[in-house]
Amino acid sequence: MKHKGTIKWFNATKGYGFIKPDDSGSDVFVHISSLKSINVASMVEGQKVGYELVQSPNKKVSAENVVLI
Fold first, then answer.
1. Domain map of the chain by residue range?
2. Is residue 34 within 8 Å of residue 19, measured between CB atoms?
3. pTM for this entry
């Protein structure tokens, strides 16, 4: 876990949402497939999480290996 933040919003039906980083950077996209041992019901607004940042080939940044903290 390299980064920490707070769930800004997460739509369990659509399977994605955004994390507001603690370092005040831009919001980070998070996909349901990036959740590591987390029940989707835990992904509620305000929940603190740890995550790693990855950059896709199209240069978009997203969260991977998301864990509750």
1. 3-68
2. no
3. 0.89
Query: Rounded mean pLDDT of the chain?
Result: 92
Q: Match domain 3-68 to its CATH number in 2.40.30.110, 3.40.50.2300, 2.60.120.10, 2.40.50.140.
A: 2.40.50.140
Amino acid found at 2: K
Give the DSSP letter string of the chain.
Answer: --EEEEEEEEETTTTEEEEEETT----EEEEGGGBSS--GGG--TT-EEEEEEEE-TTS-EEEEEEEE-
pLDDT of residue 1: 66
Contacts of 29 (CB under 8 A, 6+ apart): 16, 17, 18, 60, 61, 62, 63
